[in-house]
Amino acid sequence: MAFLSHCIILGHINQGGYFESSVRFKCSFSNNKAGFYRSFNAIFGKIGRCASEEVVSALIKTKCLPVLLYGTEVCPTNAADLQSMQFTVNRVSIKLFGTMSQNYYQEVSNYFGINTVKELIHNRFEKFRISYGAANNYLCRLIFARC
Question: I want to staple 28 with a disulfide (CB 3.0 to 4.6 A). Which of 18, 80, 92, 96 is the partner?
Answer without folding.
Answer: 18
